[in-house]
């Protein structure tokens, strides 16, 4: 076994505990990762020192003072955070936790009470999975003794790490009814580490899947995010479905199970979405794109008409956008991430064919979807294509589109890019803030999208004066027509074009 070196910051904390008569063990995920040869994302030390004793020992750690102590203790679980001066973000704060035993879990998430234990073995017995229930004596490790002989492993976690198995500590029913979030953690660890879930543990997950309903959506979101960001996210989604958990997280995805598609697809909607996610993972795309890939066709089952090779899914991108909004809101994703994912789902279906779309059409496309979203939309299209079973993610048509986008990227595509802004327009026409201002700007933008050379102060002022003579009814109609100009990029492409170009 070749383990990662113990950082100096961790050694310093362990030595301070030892010289003051206390024990220090490396525990949890950081030790598991060290055994696997992976760089830990955080560091946890277990000790028999109480939180008060830890605070007294470390308030001046690293030269700090009582006015600016090195310790942070703001929880009920005996964990004291110790600030270090490390440049490594994973070592900025090292958590030191007193051995503890937890009481009953009345809310299926938090222990009713926590009491301190006397031994590291007692502490390990309360942990979730065997791979996380191993401890390493830091005192012995620092003294350069053989590390393997200093590992405390009462639940055979080392064997499970070697066999690549996720198994609960003790009775799986008890572990999952104590803390239902462990249901998702089991699947997340499986995806994160590439381990399989031991059969009794898997059966217990199926049995208790419904307990997720009582878990805070924010906690479910956090676990889902961690899973989506693993290298095996697609396998993780399949495991969520197999264990019955997906029904309590994103049941809308289940509607695609067994939902066949038309002649342009060889997979069901569910399989297609999962394969699209897998492509986004392989390309190491960000969370928003991964979620967009997973959900991009979530609206298809509800819009399916007909069966077999000629079935249709008209408007599935619009319906999918609405479904995605509900999913993202239910899981309490941030406003920024939510808006981006909805946008990717809503606009993922766009038509483009070389020679049929002008530069003006590309500008209208950019104006509609936003220049900041164009690159991610192309990524979703790549994932969509690979998820459909085609060999090329980025064919000539998409490469040509990318060229056209670069060509017009700096052209005016938004009202804010007009050489005449709202305030200047109101001053020019001597009008107050009103719907007329928006209507005139809408007409001006449409004309500039058609010909960027018109984006001059002189032209826009002259044209605004011409528009000003119209009454509100006519102006509203001009504005409506400007916004309804048939875009050369559009999601609702006519059936014949869909058949011809397989979009």
Please characterize this protein's 3D structure:
- The chain has helices spanning 8-19, 28-36, 51-58, 120-124, 138-142, 157-163, 172-178, 181-193, 199-208, 217-228, 233-242, 251-254, 269-282, 287-295, 300-303, 316-330, 335-346, 359-369, 371-387, 396-408, 422-429, 435-450, 457-468, 472-483, 495-501, and strands at residues 25-27, 44-47, 71-72, 79-83, 93-98, 100-102, 114-116, 135-137, 151-152, 165-166, 196-197.
- Among the domains are: 8-163, 2-Layer Sandwich (Beta Polymerase, domain 2); 166-249, Hydrophobic Seed Protein (Orthogonal Bundle); 415-469.
- 50% of the residues lie in helices and 7% in strands.
- The chain is of the alpha+beta class and 503 residues long.
- The strands form three sheets. The chain has a seven-stranded mixed β-sheet.
- The protein starts with 7 loop residues before the first helix and ends with a helix.
- Helix 18 (359-369) packs across helix 20 (396-408).
- A hairpin with a 6-residue loop joins strand 3 (71-72) and strand 4 (79-83).
- The chain is built from 25 helices and eleven strands.
């Amino acid at each position: 076994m070749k383990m990662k070196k113990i950082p100096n910051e961790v050694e310093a904390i362990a030595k301070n505990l030892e010289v003051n008569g206390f024990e220090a063990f490396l525990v949890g995920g950081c030790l598991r990762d060290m055994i696997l040869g992976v760089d830990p994302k955080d560091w946890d030390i277990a000790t028999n020192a109480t939180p008060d004793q830890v605070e007294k020992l470390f308030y001046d750690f690293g030269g700090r003072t009582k006015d600016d102590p090195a310790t942070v203790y703001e929880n009920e679980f005996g964990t004291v955070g110790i600030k270090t001066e490390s440049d490594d973000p994973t070592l900025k704060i090292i958590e030191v936790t007193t051995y503890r035993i937890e009481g009953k879990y009345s809310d299926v998430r938090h222990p009713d009470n926590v009491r301190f234990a006397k031994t590291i073995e007692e502490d390990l017995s309360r942990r979730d999975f065997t791979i996380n229930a191993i401890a390493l004596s830091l005192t012995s490790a620092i003294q350069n003794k053989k590390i393997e002989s200093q590992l405390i492993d009462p639940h055979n976690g080392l064997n499970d790490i070697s066999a690549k198995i996720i198994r609960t500590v003790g009775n799986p029913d008890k572990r999952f009814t104590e803390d239902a979030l462990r249901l998702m953690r089991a699947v997340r660890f499986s995806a994160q580490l590439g381990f399989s879930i031991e059969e009794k543990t898997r059966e217990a997950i199926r049995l208790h899947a419904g307990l997720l309903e009582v878990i805070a959506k924010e906690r479910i979101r956090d676990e889902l995010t961690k899973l989506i960001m693993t290298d095996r996210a697609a396998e993780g989604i399949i495991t969520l479905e197999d264990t019955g958990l997906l029904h309590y997280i994103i049941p809308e995805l289940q509607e695609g199970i067994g939902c066949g598609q038309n002649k342009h697809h060889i997979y069901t909607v569910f399989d297609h979405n999962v394969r699209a996610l897998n492509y986004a993972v392989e390309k190491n795309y960000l969370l928003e794109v991964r979620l967009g890939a997973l959900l991009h066709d979530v609206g298809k089952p509800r819009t399916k008409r007909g069966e077999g090779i000629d079935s249709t899914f008209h408007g599935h991108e619009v319906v999918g956008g609405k479904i995605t909004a509900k999913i993202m809101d239910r899981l309490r994703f941030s406003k920024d991430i939510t808006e981006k994912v909805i946008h990717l789902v809503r606009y993922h279906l766009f038509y483009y064919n070389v020679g049929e779309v002008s530069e003006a059409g590309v500008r209208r496309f950019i104006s509609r979807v936003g220049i900041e979203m164009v690159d991610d939309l192309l990524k979703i299209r790549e994932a969509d294509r690979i998820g459909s079973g085609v060999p090329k993610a980025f064919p000539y048509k998409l490469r040509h589109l990318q060229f056209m986008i670069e060509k017009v990227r700096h052209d005016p595509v938004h009202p804010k890019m007009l050489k005449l802004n709202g305030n200047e327009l109101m001053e020019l026409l001597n009008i107050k803030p009103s719907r007329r201002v928006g209507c005139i700007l809408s007409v001006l933008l449409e004309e500039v999208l058609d010909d960027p050379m018109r984006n001059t102060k002189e032209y826009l002022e002259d044209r605004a004066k011409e528009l000003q003579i119209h009454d509100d009814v006519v102006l509203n109609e001009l504005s409506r027509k400007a916004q309804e100009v048939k875009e050369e990029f559009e999601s609702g492409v006519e059936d014949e074009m869909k058949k011809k170009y397989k979009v």
